[in-house]
C-alpha cells in the first residue's frame, strides 16, 4: 500500500491572520488555507492535569500525517476533520510541532497537535 492509501481522513487547514476592530485592537483570525486535505489522524496520549483553576484538565496530544507537499506550520489549526466512517471529529486541533519524515527523499509530514476545547 502506498502512503496515499494510508491517508483515510480529510481535514481543513487554517492559518492565523491579524484583524483590527473598530478601536484598533489587533486580534488573531483563522481562515482556511486548504480544504479536503487527505490526512491520517492518530490519537496518542491523554493526561489529566490538576490545577487550582480546574479540578481535572485533560491535555490530549495526538498526531496527524500528511503528504510531503502539504504546507502546514506550527500554530496552524486543523478543523473539520472527517474520520474514515464519515463522522466529524468534534474538536479543532492546534499544530504544536511539525516533523518532516525523510528516507532518500521527503516521504511525509507528521504534525503533533493538541485539542482546543
Give a structural overview.
The protein is mainly beta. The protein has a single domain (3-116), classed as Bacteriophage SPP1 head-tail adaptor protein (Thrombin, subunit H). It is built from 1 helix and 6 strands; from the N terminus they run αββββββ. The chain has one helix at residues 3-6, and strands spanning 9-20, 26-49, 57-67, 77-82, 92-102, 106-116. The radius of gyration is 16 Å and the shape is globular.
CATH architecture: Beta Barrel
Q: What average pLDDT do the residues reach?
A: 87
Number of helices: 1
Alpha-beta content class: mainly beta
Radius of gyration over C-alpha positions, nearest whole angstrom: 16 Å
* CATH class annotation: Mainly Beta
Instruction: State the shape.
Output: globular
> What is the CATH superfamily?
Bacteriophage SPP1 head-tail adaptor protein
Describe the largest sheet: 6 strands, antiparallel, barrel
Order of helices and strands: HEEEEEE
Number of strands: 6
- What is the total number of structural domains? 1
Strand content: over 45%
N→C terminal distance: 35 Å
CATH topology: Thrombin, subunit H
Percent of residues in helices: under 10%
Low-confidence stretches: none
Largest sheet strand order = 1-2-3-6-5-4
Amino acid at each position: 500500500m502506498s502512503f496515499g492509501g494510508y491517508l483515510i481522513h480529510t481535514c481543513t487547514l487554517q492559518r492565523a491572520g491579524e484583524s483590527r476592530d473598530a478601536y484598533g485592537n489587533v486580534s488573531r483570525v483563522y481562515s482556511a488555507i486548504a480544504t479536503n486535505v487527505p490526512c491520517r489522524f492518530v490519537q496518542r496520549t491523554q493526561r489529566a492535569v490538576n490545577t487550582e483553576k480546574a479540578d481535572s484538565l485533560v491535555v490530549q496530544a495526538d498526531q496527524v500525517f500528511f503528504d510531503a507537499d502539504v504546507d502546514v506550520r506550527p500554530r496552524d489549526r486543523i478543523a473539520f476533520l472527517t474520520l474514515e466512517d464519515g463522522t466529524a471529529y468534534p474538536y479543532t486541533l492546534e499544530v504544536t510541532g511539525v516533523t518532516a519524515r525523510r528516507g532518500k527523499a521527503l516521504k511525509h509530514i507528521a504534525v503533533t497537535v493538541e485539542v482546543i476545547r
